[in-house]
Design goal:
The chain has 280 residues and is mainly α. The longest helix has 30 residues, at 20-49. Helices cover 68% and strands 0% of the residues. Helix 3 packs antiparallel against helix 4, helix 4 runs parallel beside helix 6 and helix 5 (118-143) packs antiparallel against helix 8 (230-242).
Length: 280
């Protein structure tokens, strides 16, 4: 069976180039295996120590590893692939450092109960593996490309969208960090800066930046490749319907549900998309 690493094939057919489908399949298969292996190994360590401190750092680190590794496995360093991979690395480094520094200073309440039950905790880590792979599919497919294509409008629009999302996520995280460090804001909710136009501007930025990366990657897509649009849709569904916003909204109501100012805030400010449905 011919594989990406078939030494004999390399010797006998050194001038041949693996077909796109074969290369896609190999890179995607290797990525799935590495992704799940990393999450499960670190899960075992984390469950033994009953700690959540490695969760987000492992997630962002796996994003970076798979993006870079897929580029190296292909061996083609076209501009579009290098930019795409670089943007994933920048995002992963920023988010990983931010989340790790936060969990070092204070425990992540999401895992208070889960880390005490290995079966439940295993699900958390497995879901992270699914999230990583599903989110990275367009980038992995792009890095598996063996033929280059001139940069076009779609690439520049995609990268611009990524920048908007990245800045929104980064700035909103910084604003909330500064807000929480102020002793005068102890026990209060943030409703200033970007948080005055969206209740979850960091999540909005997260969704937007992955849409941008899919758009750029789509420049070289054909036929069934376009179904990878399910990747940013998955990110949106995960954040808005499953793990992100629903949990924080419930926590917000538990903490400030009897605060008239908070009730006015959630009534006036849209839950995700800035300005959409905003009331005076």
């Amino acid at each position: 069976m011919e594989t990406l690493f078939d030494v004999e094939n390399d010797v006998t057919s050194s001038n041949s180039t693996p077909g796109k489908g074969t290369l896609d399949g190999n890179i995607l298969a290797w990525s799935v295996g590495i992704d799940f292996a990393i999450q499960w190994v670190v899960f075992a360590i984390s469950a033994l120590l009953q700690t959540e401190k490695f969760y987000d750092l492992t997630g962002s680190g796996t994003f970076i590893l798979l993006a870079v590794l897929s580029l190296i496995l292909n061996g083609e360093y076209y501009v579009r692939q290098c930019v795409q991979t670089g943007l994933v690395v920048v995002w992963g480094l920023r988010l990983g450092i931010f989340l790790f520094s936060r969990v070092i200073s204070a425990p992540d309440r999401r895992f208070d109960d889960a880390k005490k039950d290995p079966k439940v905790y295993f699900i958390y880590w497995t879901m992270q593996a699914v999230w990583i792979f599903a989110t990275l599919v367009p980038t992995l497919m792009l890095n598996a490309e063996t033929k280059d294509k001139s940069l076009g409008v779609r690439d520049y629009i995609g990268w611009s969208i990524w920048l908007i999302g990245f800045l929104m996520e980064t700035i909103s995280d910084i604003q909330k960090t500064i807000f929480k460090k102020n002793p005068d804001n102890a026990g209060k909710f943030i409703n200033t800066g970007l948080w005055s136009i969206s209740r979850h501007p960091n999540y909005f930025g997260e969704i937007v930046l992955w849409i941008g990366l899919w758009l750029s990657a789509s420049s070289v897509m054909t036929d069934w490749d376009y179904f990878s649009v399910l990747s940013p849709i998955f990110v949106w569904l995960l954040i808005s319907k499953i793990s992100g916003i629903p949990i924080l909204e419930r926590q917000g109501m538990t903490k400030w549900g009897e605060d008239p100012d908070y009730l006015i805030y959630i009534k006036k400010v849209p839950v995700l998309i800035p300005f959409i449905g905003m009331k005076k």
